[in-house]
C-alpha cells in the first residue's frame, strides 16, 4: 500500500478525556482529530461510555440516546485496571468495554480517512502498568493491531518524543514541562547529552503537589500567580531551561496567563493541551521507520540503556549482530538469531552502556548445548 495511505496515529488515554492525533506527511506535523458536536469540532473524547440497554449499542455520554434505559460507564481508565466491574446492576468485562471504547475513538479516524489503514498506533497513558499494557495488546490483536503495529508508552516518553520533534532551536538547552491538574503538579525536565553520538535524551520528574495543588487556586489567601512563579523558578534554578511547556486545566485561569508571561524572561513558553497525544504520534512515526531522530537515543526507566550484540562469523568475516538497541522498551526486546557452533565452545556477547560509556564483554560457554 502507498505510504500516504497508511496512518500514523497517537492516542492519549487520559483520566478525564482522550485525544487522537494523526501525522500529516504534507505539513510534517501531528494534527488533532475530533468529532462534530452541535456544529463545532471538539478534540477531546470523554473517558466514558454509555450502554443503551434496549439495543445493546455503545455511545459517548454526550451523544443522543434511544429514549430507553442507559447505563453510564465513567472513570474508564481506572476500571481498565480490573478484569471486570459493576455498573448499573450489570457486570461488564473490561476487555470488551475497552474494545468498544477504542472502536469509538477510531471511528473518528475512519470517518476522516475511510480508505486508509493504520500503519502504526502509539497509545500513551500517565502510568504504564503491566496489567493495562497486557489488556491493550489483547484488544489490539482483536482489532488487527498486532504488537508490530501498536505500542504503549507513558507520558514521560511521549513528552520526550514531542520535544525533540520540534525545531532544534527549541531543544538546544534543557526543556521543561509543568503538568498541572486537579490530581497533581509535576515538573519534568529534558536534558540532551551532546557529548555522545548519538545524543542521549533523558527526563527527570519532580512531584510538586505537596507544595502547590489545585485546591489552592480557590483560596483567597493564596496569590496563585506569585506562588507558582516562585515554585517554577526554584525547580528550574541553574538548569538552563530555555523552552517551557505548560499543560493541564489548572492553567486555564487568568492567573496562569500572567504567571507564564513572567516565566518568559529568557525562555520561550508554550501553553497547550495535547503534548502527549502529539508525542505519541511522533513516536508512531519513528517506530514505523519513517522517523528523523536517528541522531538521538531517548532513555526512560522503561528502556534498556545498552546496546547488546553477538559476535559471529558471517559472509567471510566477523560481525556484530545487534540483539537489542539502547532506547528499546525492555518488554519489547525479543530478538533471536540462529548460529552454527562450528567447533566453537563459547560465544561472545558485548554490552555497550551508552550512559556510562562502557563496554563489557561476556563469554557464554556452549558446554552442554547440542
Task: Describe this structure as you would to a colleague.
The structure is a single chain. The chain has 370 residues and is of the alpha+beta class. The chain has seven helices and 23 strands. The chain has three domains: 154 residues, 2-Layer Sandwich (Nucleotidyltransferase, domain 5); 115 residues, Nucleotidyltransferase, domain 5; 60 residues. The protein is 22% helix and 36% strand. The strands form six sheets. Strands 1, 2, 3, 6, 12 and 13 form a six-stranded mixed β-sheet that branches. The chain is globular, with a radius of gyration of 24 Å.
Helix and strand layout, with pairings?
Blueprint: E1 6-13, E2 17-24, E3 29-33, E4 35-37, E5 40-42, E6 45-46, E7 49-52, E8 57-59, E9 70-73, H1 76-79, E10 84-87, E11 90-93, H2 94-112, E12 117-125, H3 130-142, E13 150-154, H4 155-164, E14 174-180, E15 185-193, E16 199-207, H5 224-235, E17 241-247, H6 254-262, E18 268-272, H7 275-287, E19 296-298, E20 306-314, E21 317-324, E22 346-353, E23 358-365
Parallel strand pairs: 1-12, 12-13, 14-17, 16-19, 17-18
Antiparallel strand pairs: 1-2, 2-3, 2-6, 4-5, 7-8, 7-9, 10-11, 14-15, 15-16, 20-21, 20-22, 22-23
Helix pairs in contact: 2-3, 4-7, 5-6
